[in-house]
Design the sequence.
């Protein structure tokens, strides 16, 4: 069973929209990034994404670029990401995905990357610049190690492509809410609901929406038509400005946990 | 990925895959646009209305065909002997805007009109492709935004002004390494958000399908003309064809005319920078390994983790850490021989061509000149009956400041303009 799908379904069983939070691995340093990820889970995240800092992040806006550039400048190595995933999965029950551009996986070898991710307790990976058309190696590797693989479906994806993406994905389909890169926006794009509907009618069991999602109101709006809401940039900015405590505060707000406290 | 049987046929290799290379390593958001470009291109190249208009522009606007000029004084000087190979230059430097880049840009701008797009975006390193795109946008009444590494906007201030005069907006890219690869990243980010009204005029035979195949097609006129011209001039095919390799568009253009003539040796000269041993180079084929960047699988300069390594070259146009996927394929197939040429070798050939022939080449193209000189020296007098064509992909006006600095021709007071020396009290 997919760890990510189980986490999404557990939220649904509690009558909640799954809340998925992104943080860049190793930002601002390894221990703080572990602390921030744990704070994220303890304040309501059902699934977390640990981003692998990469030299050429074409799907990322300025806030995430700035953070990952800083991490790379201090000599970050990919090994660190597995250590972070391990630390977070040991400390929490959350499904932990990594978010990585594909050359990082390609360089290590898809099978080795998948093995190491599975050994660290990771649930799988989101690959923003990998389309199913090119994913034969990655699909084989994730099958072998029982990992989730999250492909993106876009407002411009044809019904044929949406079907291919739904069938290649494991865990959930990442519905790209708008044509653009990561970054907080005032409103959730109108296109998001259509992307979710298209992915579902193409056979996707679970669709979560990301890009431009930054407030509790966005999460609730997305919850009316999707299985989960993905927040990145707003959390990265909180970590930048206020450390893990600020991540905790924002996560509690985004998840609605501060409205309905529960003990961990 | 499939293993293709060895075949002597290399011309017109269709995308998306060139052997193990090429493909579409791209965000899903752009796939629909890439499909649309591919479909429109396939129809356009079979449509006389399109091909006639492209040929008319090449003739009446660019000034094609470009000349083939023999350079005997350079050939003798470069080989250190009168008894050496004959060298001919394919004069893409004489095209309007000063390089081969205009061929591809006019083709893609025409295609953008067919696609109903009103805005062109482009990346540029030294500024040649940016200037060419700004030119085509002005000619066709389209909006134009050019992304350029912040470092490059400062080094190539004159080209920034040229693009602005042509009506383009130039956006300096300050993040990452602030060079050509980061300009491509930023252009892709723009395109993801604007694809409805915008065409991305990628400037080389790299990127996702259909760019490698399409950009080659717009440049293959170089090789077609050169083949005809050398036959007319010498009555036979050349022994070798030499071109510089950054992304590799001028090289694909001229190689195309000779790919299926096994007796013609093909040479691609990469930027060896300060020498491969220094790590400061842009020799992606010589020292890179297979990876994915900017939409294609190809040879890539990357570290053990898969992070892109910054490239280095005296020539901004070759300063790119990867190479078009068809070159990776032609290398592995053994059809083209790729070798590095250092900054020092290139600048020697640059100076020699200026002084012996009255032609100032682009520093990019000087890599091919230096490579041809190396071949000629290796052949020695046995090569005296041989013929080399060098693709002179661009003119060197843009490089005069760099050359003046290299050869120490600047007045002493200009030294104070050098940034961050930190020597002054």
Sequence:
């Amino acid at each position: 069973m997919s760890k990510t799908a189980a986490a999404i379904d557990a939220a649904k069983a509690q009558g909640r929209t799954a809340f998925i939070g992104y943080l860049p691995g190793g930002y601002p340093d390894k221990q703080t990034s572990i602390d921030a990820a744990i704070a994220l889970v303890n304040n309501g995240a059902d699934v977390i994404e640990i981003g692998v800092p990469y030299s050429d992040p074409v799907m990322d806006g300025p806030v995430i670029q700035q953070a990952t550039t800083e991490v790379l400048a201090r000599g970050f190595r990919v090994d660190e990401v597995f250590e972070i995933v391990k630390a977070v999965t040991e400390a929490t029950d959350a499904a932990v995905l990594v978010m990585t551009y594909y050359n990082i996986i390609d360089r290590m070898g898809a099978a080795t990357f998948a093995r190491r991710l599975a050994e660290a307790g990771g649930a799988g990976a989101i690959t923003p610049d990998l389309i199913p058309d090119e994913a034969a190696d990655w699909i084989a590797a994730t099958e072998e190690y029982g990992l989730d693989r999250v492909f993106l479906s876009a407002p411009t994806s044809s019904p044929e492509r949406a079907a291919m993406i739904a069938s290649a994905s494991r865990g959930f389909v990442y519905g790209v809410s708008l044509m653009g890169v990561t970054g907080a926006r005032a409103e959730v794009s109108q296109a998001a609901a259509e992307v979710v509907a298209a992915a579902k009618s193409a056979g996707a069991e679970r669709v979560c929406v990301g890009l431009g999602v930054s407030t509790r109101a966005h999460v609730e709006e997305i919850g009316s038509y999707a299985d989960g809401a993905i927040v990145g940039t707003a959390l990265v900015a909180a970590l930048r400005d206020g450390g893990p405590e600020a991540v905790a505060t924002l996560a509690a707000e985004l998840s609605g946990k501060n409205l309905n406290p529960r003990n961990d | 990925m499939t293993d293709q049987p060895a075949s002597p046929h290399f011309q017109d290799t269709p995308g998306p895959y060139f052997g193990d290379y090429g493909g579409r390593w791209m965000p899903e958001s752009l796939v629909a646009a890439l499909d649309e470009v591919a479909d429109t291109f396939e129809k356009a190249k079979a449509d006389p209305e399109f091909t006639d208009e492209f040929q008319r522009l090449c003739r009446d606007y660019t000034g094609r065909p470009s000349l083939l000029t023999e350079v005997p004084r350079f050939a003798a000087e470069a080989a250190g002997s009168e008894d050496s190979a004959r060298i001919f230059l394919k004069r893409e430097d004489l095209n309007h805007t000063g390089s081969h880049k205009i061929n591809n840009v006019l083709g893609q701008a025409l295609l953008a009109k067919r696609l109903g797009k009103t805005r062109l975006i482009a990346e540029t390193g030294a500024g040649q492709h940016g200037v060419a795109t700004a030119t085509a946008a002005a000619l066709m009444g389209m909006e134009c935004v050019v992304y350029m590494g912040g470092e490059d906007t400062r080094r190539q201030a004159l080209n920034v002004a040229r693009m602005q005069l042509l009506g383009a907006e130039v956006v300096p890219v300050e993040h990452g390494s602030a060079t050509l690869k980061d300009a491509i990243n930023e252009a892709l980010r723009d395109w993801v958000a604007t694809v409805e009204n915008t065409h991305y005029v990628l400037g080389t035979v790299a990127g996702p399908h259909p760019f490698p195949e399409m950009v080659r097609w717009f440049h293959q006129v170089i090789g077609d003309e050169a083949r005809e011209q050398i036959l007319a001039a010498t009555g036979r095919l050349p022994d070798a064809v030499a071109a510089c390799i950054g992304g590799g568009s001028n090289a694909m253009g001229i190689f195309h005319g000779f790919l299926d003539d096994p007796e013609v040796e093909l040479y691609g000269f990469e930027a060896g920078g300060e020498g491969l041993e220094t790590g400061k180079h842009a020799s992606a084929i010589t020292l890179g390994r297979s990876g994915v960047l900017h939409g294609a699988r190809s040879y890539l300069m990357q570290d053990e983790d898969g992070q892109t390594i910054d490239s280095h070259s005296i020539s901004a146009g070759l300063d790119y850490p990867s190479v078009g996927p068809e070159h990776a394929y032609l290398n592995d197939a053994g059809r083209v021989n790729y070798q590095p040429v250092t900054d020092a070798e290139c600048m020697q050939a640059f100076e020699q061509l200026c002084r012996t022939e009255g032609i100032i080449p682009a520093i990019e193209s000087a890599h091919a000149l230096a490579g041809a000189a190396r071949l000629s020296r290796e052949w020695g007098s046995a090569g005296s009956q041989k013929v080399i064509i060098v693709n002179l992909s661009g003119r060197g006006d843009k490089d005069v400041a760099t050359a003046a600095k290299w050869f120490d021709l600047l007045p002493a007071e200009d030294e104070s303009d050098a940034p961050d020396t930190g020597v002054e009290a």
The interface with chain B takes residues 54-59, 61-62, 65-66, 69, 72, 77-78, 102-108, 128-131, 133-134, 136, 151-158, 161, 165, 176, 179-181 of chain A (CB under 8 Å).
